[in-house]
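Saturday, quiet lab. Running sequence design on the C-alpha cells for the scaffold JK sent over.
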C-alpha cells in the first residue's frame, strides 16, 4: 500500500499509465484493421454507410470507454445541410411501421427525432421504407439494416473465427479477439453535423464572465467542430460531441498544470480498483465529464500545480456524482449520464470511493 503523498507515487502511476497506453494502442491497432475491412465491405453493398479508414495516429471514430469496451462510430453518407426544427408531437413506431397509439416517453436531453426533411440534400435511399417511416429516419430501422450488413460482412471477410455478433440489445455489438484479449465493440451509425452547434447544448454557460475555462477563443474553435447524431437505441438519435471533447482533452495543460496526470491517475484507479470489469457502470467518458466540470469550476493554473490536491479534487467530485446517481453532461446539462445506470453498481462504487477518501491510499495491483 502506498501513501498518496509517497515520493515514488508519480513513478508508480506513470508506469501503470504507460502500460495501459501500450495495451490500448495494440488493441486499437488490431480493432482498426477489423473495422476497416468490415466497413469497406458494408459500404460496397450499401452506399449509405461509409468505411472507417485506418489511421496510424489518433482515430476519431474509436472511443475507448474501458480497456475492453470501445464505441466505434460509422459515418453515414448522403445527408447534408442539416437544420434544426422545432420539436413536434411524439412519434413512436413498431419496426413494421405501425404508429403506436400512445407515447412511450419524451426524448431526454441527449435524444431527438430526425426527419429526412431536416437535410437540404439527401440520397434517395434515406427515403426508403427500410429506414424511413412517415419522413422520420428511425434509428431502430437503421440499426436493423446495419446489423444485417455487419453479419454478412463478417462472413464475407472471413472473420467468423475472430469476430462474433452479440445479440443482447438493439444496438450492434461485436466481440473481437485480439492479442490483448477479447474486446467488445459497439458499432453506431453516425450522422455527422459539422460547422453547427445543437440548440440543446447549453455551452458556454451564461453569464460568460463567470466561466473562464476554456478561453473565449477556444470555445469558438471547439464549437466549429459541430456534433454527431448516433443510432444507439430504438426511437431517438443520441447527441454526441466526440470531436469537441477531444479538443478539450488535447489542450488541458497549456498553462503547465497537472490536469491530465490527475485524470489519468483517477482513470487508473477506477479501472484497477474502484470499478473494474468488461462493461463497467462508470466509463472513461464519465470520468472525462467529471474532469471537464472540475476544470470549469477551478480554471486557474494555480489550482492544478500540486498533483495530490488536483487528484483528490477530482475524486471528491466523482464520489459526489456517483453517490447521488447524478452526473450532468458537460455540453447538455439537462441530461443525466447516470439516468440508466444500475443503481446497485453505482452504490458499490460510491462505497469504495468513500473508503478511499477517508484514507487516500494508492493500492495499485
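Result came back. Writing it out in full:
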Amino acid at each position: 500500500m502506498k501513501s498518496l503523498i509517497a515520493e515514488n507515487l508519480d513513478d508508480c502511476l506513470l508506469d501503470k499509465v504507460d502500460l495501459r497506453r501500450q495495451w490500448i494502442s495494440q488493441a486499437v491497432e488490431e480493432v482498426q484493421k477489423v473495422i476497416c475491412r468490415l466497413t469497406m465491405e458494408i459500404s460496397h453493398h450499401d452506399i449509405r454507410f461509409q468505411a472507417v479508414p485506418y489511421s496510424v495516429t489518433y482515430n476519431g471514430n474509436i472511443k475507448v470507454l474501458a480497456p475492453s469496451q470501445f464505441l466505434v462510430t460509422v459515418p453515414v453518407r448522403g445527408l447534408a445541410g442539416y437544420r434544426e426544427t422545432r420539436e413536434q408531437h411524439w412519434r413512436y413506431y413498431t419496426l413494421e411501421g405501425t404508429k403506436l397509439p400512445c407515447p412511450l416517453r419524451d426524448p431526454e436531453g441527449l435524444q431527438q427525432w430526425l426527419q429526412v426533411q431536416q437535410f437540404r440534400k439527401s440520397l434517395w435511399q434515406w427515403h426508403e421504407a427500410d429506414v424511413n417511416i412517415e419522413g422520420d429516419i428511425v434509428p431502430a430501422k437503421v440499426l436493423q439494416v446495419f446489423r444485417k450488413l455487419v453479419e454478412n460482412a463478417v462472413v464475407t471477410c472471413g472473420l467468423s473465427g475472430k469476430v462474433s455478433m452479440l445479440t443482447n440489445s438493439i444496438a450492434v455489438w461485436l466481440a473481437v479477439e485480439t492479442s490483448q484479449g477479447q474486446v467488445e465493440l459497439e458499432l453506431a451509425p453516425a450522422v455527422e453535423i459539422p460547422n453547427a452547434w445543437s440548440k440543446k447544448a447549453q455551452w458556454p454557460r451564461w453569464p460568460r464572465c463567470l466561466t473562464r475555462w476554456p478561453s473565449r477563443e477556444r470555445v469558438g474553435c471547439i464549437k466549429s467542430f459541430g456534433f454527431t447524431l448516433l443510432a444507439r437505441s430504438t426511437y431517438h438519435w443520441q447527441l454526441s460531441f466526440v470531436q469537441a471533447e477531444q479538443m478539450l482533452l488535447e489542450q488541458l495543460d497549456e498553462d503547465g498544470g497537472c490536469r491530465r496526470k490527475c485524470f489519468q491517475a483517477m482513470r487508473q484507479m477506477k479501472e484497477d480498483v474502484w470499478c473494474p470489469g468488461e462493461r463497467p457502470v462508470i466509463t472513461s467518458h464519465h470520468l472525462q465529464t467529471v474532469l471537464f466540470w472540475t476544470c470549469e469550476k477551478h480554471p486557474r493554473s494555480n489550482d492544478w500545480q500540486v498533483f495530490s490536491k488536483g487528484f483528490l479534487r477530482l475524486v471528491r467530485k466523482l464520489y459526489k456524482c456517483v453517490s447521488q446517481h447524478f452526473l450532468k453532461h458537460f455540453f447538455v446539462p439537462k441530461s443525466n449520464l447516470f439516468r440508466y445506470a444500475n443503481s446497485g453498481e453505482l452504490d458499490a462504487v460510491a462505497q469504495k470511493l468513500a473508503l478511499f477518501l477517508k484514507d487516500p491510499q494508492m493500492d495499485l495491483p
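Notes for JK: The first strand starts at residue 2 and ends at 3. The chain has eight helices and 14 strands. Ask whether to fix the surface positions before the next round.
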